[in-house]
Each structure stands twice: as C-alpha cells, then as structure tokens.
Specification:
The complex is a heterodimer. Chain A is 53% helix and 14% strand. Chain A is α+β, with helices and mostly antiparallel strands. Chain A folds into 2 domains: 6-190, Beta-Lactamase; 207-261. Chain A has a 6-stranded antiparallel sheet with strand order 3-2-1-6-5-4, sandwiched between helices. In chain A, strand 1 (50-57) and strand 2 (60-65) form a beta hairpin. Chain B is mainly α. Chain B contains 2 helices and no strands. Chain B is elongated. The chains are: A alpha+beta, B mainly alpha. At the A-B interface, helix 1, helix 2, helix 8 and helix 9 of A face helix 1 and helix 2 of B.
C-alpha cells in the first residue's frame, strides 16, 4: 500500500476547510489550499515522494503548489508550454490523459527537461490532468520519486481520488455558484463518524436540553477567549471565536424563549 | 496534517486552527438559524440539529482542548 488509510480522512479534512475558506470570500489563497492538499498527500504516503500541482493558463502551465520541490525547479517549470513532448505534466495537460514516466533519465518525453530534473535528483514523474465538470483540463497533479518507479494499481486509485478533491477546490476558487451545495456535502462528509443520536430516533428534544448544550458551548468559548485575552490579545482566533459565541448566545436565547413559553 | 490540540499562548499557531474556527462559527450561525426555523415551524428541534450542535462542540473541543465541557463520546443526548 503506497498510501496509508489516513489519506481519505486527510482529503476530507482539507476539503471541508477549503469549502469553508472559499465560502468566507477570500479568493486569493488557492495556492495555500492546494499546498495543504499536497502536504496531506505526502504525509499519507508510505513512500518518499514529492508532489506538485500546475495550473493550466492558456497553453502554459503555472505554478500552483509544490511544498517540497526545490524553488529553482518550480521557477524553471513555471510558464512551461504544454505539448506532445513536454515532460509528464506538459504532455498530460496537452493530451488530457495521465502520463506516468517511470524513468526520467530515459524517457523521450523528458528530453527538454531531463537535465533540470535529474539535477534535482528527480527520477520518476507521474502526472494526471485535473478536469472541470465540462472535461476541460484545469491543472495537473504530479507525483515525483527519487528512484525510477511505476505506480501500483492502489496508487493509481489514490491519485484519482486526490485529483477529484483538487478539482473541486480549483472549481470553488473559480466560481462560487456551486459552492453552497458542495459546502453542505463537504461538511456532512467531514462530520465526526460517531453518531450520538440515531437519525431514525425522532424523539423531541426539550428546549432545556438544547439550552444546556448552548450554555456549555458559550462557557467553552468564553474560557478560550479569556485565555487569549491574557496571552494573545491580538490573536487571529478572537474574531471567529466572538462570531461563534454570538451565534451560541443567540441559540441560547432561542432555547430560553421556548423554555419560558412551555 | 497537524493534529492535536492548539493551546492559546503556547507553541505554533497552525493556519488550520483559524480556518477550522471560522468554519465552526459559520456552521454554528447556520445551525442556529435552522433551529429557529424548526422551532417556529415544527415547535421542536430535530435530533439531527441537536446532533450537529453536539458535533460542533466536539470539533471546538478538539481544536482548543476543553475536556469535560461536552458530554463524553457515545453518550446520548436524551
């Protein structure tokens, strides 16, 4: 197994975060989102590998993310034209199909890029195009190895899964019209698997119990806010914490109102 | 991926903490609005909504580490 069982969980966590980040309106951090995916993939890999995402811009590939590839290599590849003989990624983007080069040293597709890659110790590159829902190539996802290697069937399946997730993240960064539905799916998928209440168990919960839950949440948020006020009064977490506290207090008031009405 | 509990004032501040906290806040706002509708339309809160509230609290605890603030895993809300 080249990828540990954690890959699924890592990808879902990345997707949930990406969906929420794009929903909050900051469109300028696609690189950060993509890098988080790649770090998750590298962390879940049982073998040493380096990953990259290149974004297709017209007939050129632009740097998207590559957390562990050398900067010099990334700079050289940034802006490379796609074509039928343009390394693994340039060829994959051009042909719209996966290109798995198991030995860069001998493969003719790498003729123009061989010295650069070998100079950085890269020996194998498996690249897969990432498509939007109209089957237009958006980007390429590549896995590099430092020794000649071909992917196993398990690795190919993992790559397909990874590219599906990355495609959604890129699509979200390009347009928010599909985000609402995807966000719901992402957060549903990422919810803790331990279910405390069976959905079929449709018994009515009392306003008292709901109020108790909101009370506990407000107390928990207050405890963190108090700690931050003492240690990090300018913390980035204060704003979302205050936002969450306001929502929890609103919920608490709702429950209280229904308690009074009962 | 980073794991474990973020302890305010100590150690690194991973970017995912801010993103996850923002996500929890957004989801909590949406949930409260949804509960408001449930109360007005059905006169009660569904078990699914109660579970979502519990899940959000668990996610918050996982992020900032407030053991004991929420009910132990596996305990039913009723």
């Amino acid at each position: 197994m080249a990828f540990a069982a954690e890959l699924d969980g890592f990808l879902k966590q990345c997707e949930s975060l990406a969906a929420c980040e794009f929903a909050t309106g900051d469109d300028n951090h696609l690189g950060t989102v993509l890098e988080r995916y790649l770090r998750a993939v590298e962390a879940a890999a049982d073998t040493e590998m380096l990953t990259s995402i290149l974004l297709l811009d017209g007939h050129c590939l632009r740097h998207g993310a590559a957390p562990r590839l050398p900067d010099e290599y990334c700079s050289a590849v940034d802006g490379a034209e796609i074509g039928s003989n343009a390394g693994s990624c340039g060829t994959a983007a051009h042909l719209g199909r996966a290109i798995y080069v198991s030995d860069i040293a001998t493969d003719p597709l790498w003729a123009d890029w061989r010295d650069l890659a070998l100079g950085h110790g890269l020996r194998a590159c498996w690249s897969t195009p990432i498509f939007d829902d109209k089957q237009t190539v958006l980007a390429t996802f590549a896995i590099y190895h430092l020794t000649p290697r071909s992917p196993t069937s398990e690795e190919v399946r993992a790559i397909e899964k990874i590219t599906e997730h990355v495609a959604r993240a890129i699509a979200w960064s390009k347009g928010k019209q599909v985000l609402a539905a995807d966000l719901t799916r992402a957060t549903t998928r990422s919810a803790p698997s331990l279910r405390l209440v069976a959905s079929a168990d449709a018994e009515q919960l009392s306003a008292h119990e709901i109020k108790h839950e909101f009370d506990a949440l407000v107390d928990a948020i207050d405890a963190v806010l108090g700690k931050l006020a003492r240690t990090e009064p300018n913390s980035f977490y204060i704003r979302p914490l205050q936002q969450a506290k306001a929502a929890a207090e609103k919920g608490k008031s709702l429950a209280q109102r229904h308690l009074s009405a009962d | 991926m980073a794991s474990g509990v973020f302890n305010p004032g100590r150690g690194p501040r991973p970017a995912h903490v801010e993103a996850e906290m923002s996500a929890i806040a957004l989801e909590l706002e949406a949930l409260v609005d949804h509960m408001d509708n449930e109360w007005r339309e059905a006169g009660k809160i569904s078990t699914e909504s109660a579970q979502r509230l519990k899940d959000l609290h668990l996610r918050f605890d996982a992020l900032f580490g407030n053991p004991g603030q929420s009910k132990p895993s596996g305990e039913r809300i009723r």
